[in-house]
Write a structure and sequence with these properties.
Blueprint lengths: L23 H13 L6 H18 L23 H48 L4 E6 L6 E3 L12 E9 L5 E6 L5 H13 L1 E2 L8 E9 L3
Antiparallel strand pairs: 1-6, 2-5, 3-4, 3-6
């Protein structure tokens, strides 16, 4: 307690004054210091604790070659969990679309092969129908679509016995035979008749320059 400041300096007498200091202000200062203190589990302290744990773990397992590091944990990142059901449906659709193309292409290929085989058979039958008669027969031709558009008159000949002769030749783009070769031999008269007959044949023209190869058999029958 401090008395009023009302002193008479002329009559100053010694006087005892009691002063009591309260500790309330000290307590407030302590409270303020507590508020300013950092939290116990700050990031720096956590990292220090982790480092101590790593060192301790490495010392205890110094005999082992492998060292397990403590992973750094964080709560900031979020892990997105995909919808497995939707993914499965999409994958199935993708697989179906991928499988659909090879199957369709394979069906188209088989269908085209069947159609080509049928067409080839029809052409062969047609070729045989017009190419086979009493005197000659076309054995093979590189282009089945090429037909004989003209044949010379059947030659006259006299033989003691029947025979046949096979020849090969090429046909140019205009349908004219050339490069005639005898594959089987006979008398010189029969060979000449066969070569002259082949020279007189005419095939239909084509729009390519590569020649076609033909093999023909001529029959000489005695009647």
């Amino acid at each position: 307690m401090i008395p009023e400041y009302n002193l008479d300096f002329k009559n100053i007498k010694p006087k005892t004054v009691k002063i009591e200091i309260l500790k309330q202000s000290i307590k407030k200062e302590k409270d303020k210091t507590k508020e300013k203190e950092k939290p116990l589990f700050s990031n720096k302290k956590i990292e220090n604790l982790k480092e101590k744990l790593r060192k301790k773990f490495n010392k205890s397992d110094s005999g082992n070659k492998e060292v397990v590091e403590v992973p750094t944990m964080t709560t900031e990142e979020k892990v997105l969990i995909p919808d497995l059901n939707n993914m499965q449906i999409l994958e199935n659709r993708h697989i179906e679309k991928q499988d659909e193309k090879p199957v369709l292409s394979e069906l188209e290929r088989v269908k085209s092969e069947i159609e080509k085989t049928n067409n080839d058979k029809a052409l062969i039958n047609e070729q045989q129908s017009f190419a086979k008669n009493d005197f000659y027969e076309i054995k093979s031709i590189t282009n089945l679509k090429r037909k004989i558009v003209y044949e010379p008159p059947k030659p006259s000949f006299s033989l003691e016995r029947g025979t046949k002769i096979t020849l090969s030749f090429k046909v140019d783009r205009y349908g004219r035979p050339f490069d005639i070769n005898l594959l089987t031999r006979s008398s010189s008269n029969v060979e000449k008749i066969a070569i002259d007959f082949v020279k007189g044949l005419r095939f239909d023209a084509v729009d390519y320059n590569k020649p076609d190869f033909v093999e023909i058999t001529l029959f000489f029958r005695v009647r």
